[in-house]
Amino acid sequence: MKRGACLASALALLGGTAHASQFTGLIDPAGIRFSTGTSPARVSVAVPMVTACGGQRYYAYENADSGLGGLWTEALIQARVHGRPVMIVGTGTCDNFGIEKISHIDLR
């Protein structure tokens, strides 16, 4: 009986796990959203496809003003300004706003 409870718990946890999505191309015309009044600083990136999180067309990350987040922010701005493609790989995890978190970003 104990095994059955463990199996049921494991299956319940798997049901909430999304598969990470991946996008390669130009940032959507909706652009890059810088959220004000949030701490830590937050950036959302519009893409022309639906991500793994409930029909959203955005990826997002926090700590956008320092460390790796600061580098990502500058790279995304430059990619948008110069019309360069990016590859964004999500985590498959949705944040509190229902937007997929970013695992990593590559410039193309």
Give an overview in words.
Keywords: Signal. This protein is α+β, with helices and mostly antiparallel strands. Helices cover 28% and strands 32% of the residues. It has two helices and six strands, in the order αββββαββ. The termini are far apart.
Strand line-up of the largest beta sheet? 1-5-6-4-3-2
- Can you write the helix and strand succession as a string? HEEEEHEE
Runs in which pLDDT lies below 50 for 5 or more consecutive residues are: 5-16
**Helix content percent band:** 25-40%
The major pleated sheet works out as: 6 strands, mixed
Number of strands: 6
- Average pLDDT confidence is 85
Q: What is the straight-line distance between the termini?
A: 53 Å
Characteristics of this structure?
globular; 6-stranded mixed β-sheet; 108 residues; alpha+beta; 32% strand; signal
Write the layout of secondary structure elements.
Blueprint: H1 2-15, E1 22-25, E2 32-35, E3 42-46, E4 58-62, H2 67-82, E5 86-94, E6 100-107
Parallel strand pairs: 4-6
Antiparallel strand pairs: 1-5, 2-3, 3-4, 5-6
